[in-house]
Amino acid sequence: MPTERRSLIMLFGATGDLATRKLYPAMYNLFKKGNIRDHFAVIGTSRHSVDDAKFRDIVTKSVNDAEKKADKKLVADFIKHFFFVTHDVTDLEHYSVLKDKAEELDKEFKLNGNRVFYISMAPNFFGTVAKNLKNQGLLSEGNGFNRLVIEKPFGRDFESAKELNDALSHSFNEDQIYRIDHYLGKEMIQNIEAIRFGNTLFEALWNNRYIDNIQVTLAENLGVEERAGYYDNSGALRDMVQNHIMQIVSLLAMEQPVAFKDVDIRAEKVKALRSLRVYNVAEASTNFVRGQYAAGGNGKEYREEDGVPADSNTETFVAGKLLFDNYRWSGVPFYIRTGKKLADKFTRVDVVFKKPLVDIFSFPQDGNTLLSPNVLTIHIEPNQGFSLVVNAKNGDQGFHTEPVNLDFYESSQRTQNTPQPYERLIHDVLKGDGTNFSSWPEVANAWKFVDQIRRVWDIQQPMFPNYLPGSMGPVAADELLARDHREWIYKLNQ
Ligand code: NAD
Questions:
Q1: Which of 40, 89, 170, 252 lies 20 to 30 Å from 317, alpha-carbon distance?
Q2: Is there a single domain that holds both residue 66 and residue 127?
């Protein structure tokens, strides 16, 4: 039997897109599995004038949209835990209404004073809400916990992130703050630690003696769609690299934690990020490439999308080379790339091992091919699994080698039953496990790195648009690796 977690969840932005598309279905799954059951209550708030009945309709629709055959009786039980308070977060006086409601529900559902405050609103409200929660006396006193969940983005550069963090620190300690990076809730991202630290085969070789380079690709095949307003102010560097990619890279680069606990894992991730080389202007220009998509297929070019200024220099693609100045990784580039309107939608990590120092099977006169590097690919999405390329004899009469693939993919049934990121992450918050959230030192170091690239890009005029929809980005992204006599493992038409 799963352990039931007791808590009030006060949700700011309860009528918004994220809440209705992701958060209610995630909570419902936790309810279905018994992780939350009798002793939880949700106070939804937003400026909208909604009563409990209407709110419960919203939650029901959201669950039914996510799960076509949701059990009606279970959904009916679930929504009895949902209450709504119309509340403008800037209205100081009105916090007392939230406070009274929290106390009433705490008694009714026997919540032991445990409170989760989830801010699913535009980022400019994060600091205001956190401050008001404390100043207006909403934090639980006594033995109950107070936890704050913050959505992305966490600032738009180091300075603004620090300002936000200072505002949050006024009300919450670092160990009470859960900064969401939903990539950290993905099954195969969490599997990176299992693959590395659960297998002598990999961890023993996980260093610059045996690894040639590591490649991380987060590809999307859609354009900006309806998010142009947000996206044009952000761009791929801020939207994807500073958070998701930096988190994945730190999991790949970190040392083995003392134990599989949030404090120990965070300590190692921070250490790795601190050894990431922060580039000077020349290095940033050489080691990072940006792109913006052109028109193609039936789609418009980025600058013609609704809500995008015609002279926008916002990048929809980034590729870069990251270098860690430490004993384990000295000399091993981590290549990263992400972009919109690429060939396909997928996320993968390719760990490229060095070839054997001597290739005794190379008989050019017989037309034999050279040995391939061993490549461990971690397929994060849509397929979940990993594959390993090894060299083997090809079965001919002569002695010819060929690369063969050892594949493991989760079955679609297992994948379907795997909790979605928000389900895991909300569960982690209720358990008080910060492993899969970004800590402030991680966020700060990631911003310091990314700011340097941004600074250089802000003073240089890009040649946009520079890649076609359906490609894998601008030619310069291939040249970035070609300069190092390498190539991307994932290429088009694979
Ligand atoms: P949204 O605009 O759809 O919802 C915002 C909510 O805030 C609404 O309920 C609105 O009524 C409420 N609100 C606005 N001003 C208010 C005020 N003054 N007082 C009280 N309530 C107010 O936004 P969203 O897409 O749900 O995003 C929420 C957060 O989640 C943002 O930080 C966003 O960056 C992040 N996020 C969203 C998604 C997504 O898929 N939507 C994905 C990742 C991260």
A1: 252
A2: yes
